[in-house]
């Protein structure tokens, strides 16, 4: 018999297990995969953006829904505590643009190994299996039942099963089923930090094109308000757009009905509209007898040139000396405001994180314990909290995992 059962061996589960074990409890992690923390392995493109080197207040501000619920957990285990934890576990860290923190090795496996080592060194036992139900007796959680019918007893159970994104890593929504069994309200899961599909037919022509230093503005056409701006990287795909800026932008689109949100890409954010026009004048004056499509090769990525010319209604074979002032101005406008219309999200399985989950109103903000069932705790992505990109979602996992582990 274990004192504490952790359901799910991801970032939150391993942190909760290690903390509970160091308080003297016999802890068992039940993980459906042979190797724990498979999702951590693929975060940050395999580099693992482990946290964000910012204040607790800034952390809370990066959680668009239910951020205040996390204030206590973030305060008890801050981003700086996370950094100190991994440094103590022998993983040197570095801080990059936007205060994003990565292992110096740029290898997510170093973070995974540190978490597993932390749990095992505390005496945590690992059990491969899938939990299908909770054992609840008179309002108290007394253990779990596995898929093979076996029952494991304990005085506390911490559910850390993740959400529904990247189901191949084991996140298939099991935690929501367990929460509902215990009587919890579960906000329907939806994708967050997810690539976007767009209406424009020319987008597939740019498949594979990566823009490194562009600016993005997202406008809600219903309210007319700007809901998000960013500067950085994005990627064109066969279905639409992806990349860091786009994933962050998606978290601000809570109801992405077809056509509601408009993306505007500034291809030359370092230049004003007047400076862009002056640049085009110089290029065209210096290549008067060159086709405009060739002249633009010093201004734009080659695959983008025919798209921009088509949108500007300017034939690529047109000579530079023949380009009218009006055509040049239209071209310059597209360089500063290339428009895209969002048609929807890619599937939930492709989302970096899952929004929705166990209602925070039914959990203790300090301990993550259920207010409905004694001895039952939740931590990580299974809770209805999700943040923007930049290491904040892993910080949620670590802070809530610590809270649960410290209070079981």
Q: Could you describe the 3D structure shown?
A:
The protein has 408 residues and is of the alpha+beta class. It has two domains: 4-192 and 351-407, 3-Layer(bba) Sandwich (FAD/NAD(P)-binding domain), CATH 3.50.50.60; 195-345, Helicase, Ruva Protein, domain 3 (Orthogonal Bundle). It is elongated, with a radius of gyration of 25 Å. Helix 9 crosses helix 12 (325-336). Helix content is 29%, strand content 25%. Strand 4 (93-95) and strand 5 form a beta hairpin. It starts with a strand and ends with a helix. It contains 13 helices and 19 strands. The chain has helices at 11-21, 38-42, 56-61, 71-76, 79-88, 108-121, 174-181, 244-250, 273-286, 292-295, 305-311, 325-336, 392-407; strands at residues 4-7, 27-31, 51-52, 93-95, 100-103, 125-128, 131-137, 140-146, 151-153, 156-159, 186-192, 196-198, 210-220, 225-236, 240-242, 261-266, 338-345, 353-358, 376-378. The strands form five sheets. It has a six-stranded antiparallel barrel. Strands 6-2-1-10-19 form a five-stranded parallel beta sheet, with helices on one face. A three-stranded antiparallel beta sheet has the order 3-5-4.
Number of domains: 2
- Strand composition percent: 25-35%
Number of strands: 19
CATH architecture of the largest domain: 3-Layer(bba) Sandwich
CATH structural class of the largest domain? Alpha Beta
Physical arrangement of strands within the biggest beta sheet: 12-15-14-13-16-17
Query: What is the multimeric organization of the chains shown?
Result: single chain
Q: What structural category characterises the helix and strand content? A: alpha+beta
What is the fold-level CATH name, i.e. the topology of the largest domain? Answer: FAD/NAD(P)-binding domain
DSSP helix fraction? 25-40%
């Amino acid at each position: 018999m274990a004192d504490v059962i952790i359901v799910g061996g991801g970032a939150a589960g391993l942190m909760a297990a290690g903390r509970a074990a160091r308080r003297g409890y016999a802890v068992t992690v039940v993980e459906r995969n042979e190797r724990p923390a498979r999702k951590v392995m693929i975060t940050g493109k395999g580099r693992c953006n482990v946290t964000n080197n910012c204040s607790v207040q800034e952390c809370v501000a990066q959680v668009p829904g239910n951020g205040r619920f996390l204030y206590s957990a973030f305060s008890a285990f801050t981003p700086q505590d996370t950094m100190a934890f991994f440094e103590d576990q022998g993983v040197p860290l570095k801080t990059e643009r936007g205060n994003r923190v990565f292992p110096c090795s740029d290898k997510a496996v170093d973070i995974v190994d540190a978490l597993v080592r932390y749990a095992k060194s505390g005496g945590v036992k690992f059990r491969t299996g899938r939990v299908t139900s909770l054992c609840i007796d008179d309002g108290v959680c007394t253990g779990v039942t596995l898929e093979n019918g076996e029952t494991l007893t304990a005085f506390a159970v911490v559910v850390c099963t993740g959400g529904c994104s990247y189901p191949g890593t084991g996140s298939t929504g099991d935690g929501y089923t367990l929460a509902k069994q215990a009587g919890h309200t579960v906000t329907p899961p939806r994708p967050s930090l997810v690539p976007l599909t767009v209406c424009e037919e020319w987008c597939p022509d740019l498949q594979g094109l990566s823009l490194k230093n562009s600016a993005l503005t997202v406008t809600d056409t219903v309210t007319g308000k700007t809901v998000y701006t960013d500067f950085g990287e994005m990627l064109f795909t066969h279905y639409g757009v992806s990349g860091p800026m786009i994933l962050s932008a998606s978290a601000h689109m809570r109801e992405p009905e077809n056509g509601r949100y408009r993306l505007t890409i500034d291809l030359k954010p370092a230049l004003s509209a007047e400076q862009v026009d002056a640049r085009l004048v110089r290029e065209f004056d210096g290549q008067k007898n060159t086709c405009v499509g060739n002249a633009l090769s010093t201004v734009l990525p080659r695959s983008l040139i025919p798209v921009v010319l088509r949108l500007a209604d300017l034939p690529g074979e047109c000579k530079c000396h023949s380009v009218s002032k009006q055509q040049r101005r239209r071209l310059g406008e597209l360089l500063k405001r290339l428009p895209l219309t969002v048609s929807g999200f890619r599937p939930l399985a492709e989302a970096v994180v899952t929004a929705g989950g166990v209602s925070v109103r039914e959990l203790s903000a300090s301990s993550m314990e259920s207010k409905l069932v004694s001895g039952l705790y939740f931590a990580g992505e299974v809770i209805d909290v999700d943040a923007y990109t930049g290491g904040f979602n892993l910080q949620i996992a670590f802070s809530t995992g610590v809270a649960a582990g410290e209070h079981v």
